[in-house]
């Protein structure tokens, strides 16, 4: 007869949340695997073509919305969140208002969070294993088709705001999410309810009109998509509204009233590198490819690639205040090896010329 003691899953769930906090996560919650309404919402979004060139969003069928299909045997999902705004970061609106500076989304200023959080999730799994013995699990941090915001909502970590970003009533929205799929029948938490009310600030502030309505985002117009996911030319009509945003965009979060409760990051690796929380555009535009690769090692900015980096900065320089120094820098790359870079440099030079003549 087995002498292995029965597992007290209620106690285990409480312990898991405590262990998660000890590992640097701000909070953890537990949900089931039923996501039927979210599956319908996802399919409608894909059918409308709002995912643009992000073909991976449609590539895995229902695995994204059915955790037990992605990882057979999954009964519960442990969702975690980690705050990412480091202390002392330059004020975002101040940078956006400085036409000679480049704005980088606050989540991308320091170390890439993917490996960091996945390693912490593996440590959490090891701690659980030490308590209950072998069990089935899989850790995910943007590494597989996962509806992380829906799972986090169901785990009580926040609601999906009208801008489609998760909002926590005690911590705003500046945090990363990660998941531990498990076969343990843990008790689930109460899903979070929405508290956006009649507020439409995020919809109204979007520079490119990407938020079509509550929970309706056309990624093809979103600056985060344009500066990171899109690999070719940026649609010309969207270049001027981009302003000086060269990697991502935070406007919809910056105006959200709930972010008055945002918590500073406790992870030192998220601190800004190379003064990217407000670096000058001309300095960044001067980086060689070798410098770009060296300085962005271990950072999310790598995702845009050197060509995308120059493309984005060229647009920002076109939107910058008129300056002969800016024109000279653009002319220096007018014959760039990349046709994409050449196109955006030419556009930026035209913009600068229009500013000079007052057109």
Automatic annotation (TrEMBL):
Question: In the UniProt record, does the keyword Kinase occur?
Answer: no
- For [4Fe-4S] cluster 2, which residues are the binding ones? 206, 222, 249, 252
Share an example GO biological-process annotation for this protein: tRNA queuosine(34) biosynthetic process
Residues reported to bind tRNA: 231
Q: Name one GO molecular function term.
A: cobalamin binding
What catalytic activity does the UniProt entry give for this protein?
epoxyqueuosine(34) in tRNA + AH2 = queuosine(34) in tRNA + A + H2O
> Record keywords: Ribosomal protein included?
no
Fill in the subunit field for this protein: Monomer.
This one is known as Epoxyqueuosine reductase
Q: Name the source organism.
A: Rhodanobacter glycinis
